[in-house]
Amino acid sequence: MRLNMFINGEWVSSINKETREIINPFNQEVIATVAEGSREDAKQAIVAARKTFDEGTWSTTPASERGEIVRKIGELILQEKEELARLETLDTGKTIEESRADMDDISNVFFYFAGLADKDGGELIESPIPHSTSKIVREPIGVCGQITPWNYPLLQAAWKLAPALASGNTLVLKPSEITPLTSVKVFELFEQAGVPKGVANLVLGAGAEVGAELAENTDVDLISFTGGIETGKTIMQAASTNVKKVALELGGKNPNIVFADADFDVAVDQALNAVFFHAGQVCSAGSRLLVEESIHDQFVEALVKRTKQIKLGNGFDDSTQSGPLISAEHRAKVEGYVEVGLKEGAQLVVGGGRPEQAELQNGFFYLPTIFTGCTSEMRIVQEEVFGPVLTVETFKTKEEAVKKANDTIYGLAGAVFTKDIDKAEDVARQLRMGTVWINDFHPYFAQAPWGGYKQSGFGRELGKIGFEEYTEVKHVYRNT
Ligand code: NAD
């Protein structure tokens, strides 16, 4: 497979003809060779997006027509679901079942924003000045730079692409350089759906080159970034060149609070789902378990028993429950954190190494791992590992649980498990996080906004707010 970039309605290789090999993390086979763009390629894509926006044809296309095109993209994604899911599993190692679920979610994201495209007719407000009218309208921002990570390659892109298109912007997407396959495929679907030339552009390549150009370039009006906290800080600084709008979806160190009165089996199931889903490579992974002291031993015993049964393997095998980590570098990072945990005195109760099965030796696998005896001061409790590593702390009171849960620089998501709904709602109110789940972990959908408090970022994706992020607000005052 050889894949190119999509700039101004044309499939193009990079100007300097460089390429990059894309690796399957399950067996390290080369699955594709893709164009490796440079700053010059990114500049060309930005020029195309700028010119197209300034010509105004897309932003003035009736919103209902834009909505129809966005809806068509959602339909094409459903038609191509199997192929897209196959590419996502090849590229990330996640199970094919997860990839199929991602494609369903992604098509729903396009349907949701397609529906919102023509719903905002502006608002008339009462002017305090006699003989005047005031109306508030929303308009597209302009050229959007969009940078996405490798853990949910197409899903994270869809959260940005769909609202940007529906609201009349032009855009340049830069997916993670290690997982570009589904983004390339979806741009083919954009063409089929009738997205006009120059509206949506795709550049491939390294963050420090192509991504940095998007963040710095003064012809870009908004930069929307999903990725790690340090990259987010760099992008925020770079964006100051022209005071472009910034939206940051960064990491998390998400607490999962289990009270003694929770439904035990549901809480065990969800504590495992929270941290080990997609090998823990999820921004909202429930990687910090806070369990009420009275049930700690029993709860950990159940977790350890179940963790040992998690079947690692090829994402294409139906029996596989968890795939490999994304890369050798990322596994080395996870291994480094396990070393840190051990040095800090946390007790390793399961995992803590690579699996021994011969058939897993070519993949970047790491065993699901649990540490008990953890405290808030430990780095393993404070820093995002982004892998299958759970830390367990205990608490005695609701107040202590909330205090420990909030004791982090992050504020992306958290969960609380209890049968006492008043208590659950009280905890939900006190958690400083963008999403709180009660008696569940991980549900998200196009209708509900997603984003972080504190250093998990700012701005929201999905929901009505996620649409509004791609608009400017204008007050039109008329002296009658
Ligand atoms: P990363 O920050 O290394 O890379 C993300 C993207 O930024 C990639 O496309 C990369 O090429 C690009 N990039 C790197 N350096 C850049 C620079 N100097 N300028 C511009 N772009 C640059 O993150 P990652 O390892 O791909 O993803 C993992 C991180 O993403 C985790 O921290 C995770 O929590 C976070 N994440 C957050 C959410 C969310 O919704 N909050 C969702 C998914 C992932």
Low-confidence stretches: none
* Number of distinct helices: 16
Strand order of the largest sheet: 15-16-17-14-13-18-19
Q: Which outline best applies? A: globular
Bound molecules: nicotinamide-adenine-dinucleotide
What's the gyration radius in Å?
23 Å
The largest β sheet comes out as: 7 strands, mixed
Q: What percent strand?
A: 15-25%
Task: Give a verbal description of the structure.
Pfam families: Aldedh. The active site is at residue 249. By secondary structure, the chain is an alpha/beta fold. The chain is 39% helix and 20% strand. The protein is built from 16 helices and 21 strands. It has helices at 39-55, 57-60, 63-79, 81-92, 96-116, 153-166, 181-193, 207-216, 229-238, 264-276, 296-308, 328-343, 379-382, 398-406, 421-430, 463-468, and strands spanning 2-3, 5-7, 10-12, 19-23, 30-35, 123-125, 132-140, 143-147, 170-174, 200-202, 222-226, 245-249, 255-258, 288-292, 347-350, 369-372, 389-395, 413-417, 435-438, 457-458, 471-479. The strands form 5 sheets. The chain has a 7-stranded mixed sheet with strand order 15-16-17-14-13-18-19, sandwiched between helices. A 6-stranded mixed sheet has the order 10-9-8-11-12-20, with helices on both faces. A 3-stranded mixed sheet has the order 1-5-4, with no helix packed on it. Helix 7 links the parallel strand 9 (170-174) and strand 10 (200-202). Helix 5 (96-116) runs parallel beside helix 6 (153-166) and helix 10 packs across helix 11 (296-308). 53% of the residues are buried. The mean pLDDT is 98. Nicotinamide-adenine-dinucleotide (NAD) binds next to helix 8 and helix 9.
